[in-house]
From TrEMBL:
Signal peptide: none annotated. InterPro entries: DUF924, TPR-like_helical_dom_sf. This is DUF924 domain-containing protein. Pfam families: DUF924. It comes from Pseudomonas tehranensis. SUPFAM superfamilies: TPR-like.
Length: 198
């Protein structure tokens, strides 16, 4: 009998086997906007359950833990894009990731799956957590065969860019408008630069 989280993992990662193939197949789902409606239609109910503190039994196994993290971190950013609710699962996701990493769950996942655990750290507006994200991505790159490193090096680059923003501002300026935060003059100048938004 299939586990309740399996449809989400199948949708998110597909059936390809190499990291390059998975990223090529699923990159637009992960980092585009075209699949927001599909995310809502297929998994909106589970996202609401996760945000309400339900589905915690999923976190007893690495794959279920990963799926619950996706429901709290990635899918709200799709389903509730450009609203404060997009970030409403962040604190719960961060706590869940910390617990799972302490249990070594991340090391039991496929490397490309681990990316979405460490992205939770990258999303945090806290420099110590950002430093941890960069450290985890560095380790992930080092652990891969040379042929598979490109995808993970790209993720490391993004982690370092996020880290620099938090080191400079203590928060992500591109979230200010959505969260009703007033931007400083320095942040406004930053936001006018190309590539300042994620």
């Amino acid at each position: 009998m299939a586990q309740p989280w399996q449809p989400l993992l199948d949708w998110w990662f597909g059936s390809a086997t190499s990291p390059d193939e998975i990223a090529a197949d699923k990159g637009k789902l992960w980092f585009g906007k075209r699949h927001d409606r599909q995310a809502h239609e297929r998994f909106g109910d589970q996202v609401e359950q996760a945000l309400a503190g339900e589905l915690t039994d999923w976190a007893q196994r690495p794959e279920g833990w990963l799926a619950l993290v996706l429901l709290l971190d990635q899918l709200p950013r799709m389903i509730f894009r450009d609203t404060p609710k997009a970030f409403s699962g962040d604190l719960r996701a961060q706590a869940l990731v910390a617990q799972g990493m302490a249990a070594g769950f991340d090391r039991q996942l496929e490397p490309i799956q681990r990316v979405f655990i460490y992205l939770v750290l990258e999303h945090c507006e806290n420099l110590a957590v950002q430093n941890e994200a960069v450290s985890r991505f560095i380790d992930l790159v080092r652990e891969q065969p040379e042929a598979d490193r490109a995808v993970f090096e790209d993720n490391l680059d993004y982690a370092e860019r996020h880290q620099k923003i938090i080191a400079q501002f203590g928060r992500f300026p591109h979230r200010n408008a959505v969260l009703g935060r007033e931007s400083t003059a320095e942040e406004v100048e930053f936001l006018n630069r190309p590539g300042s938004r994620f």
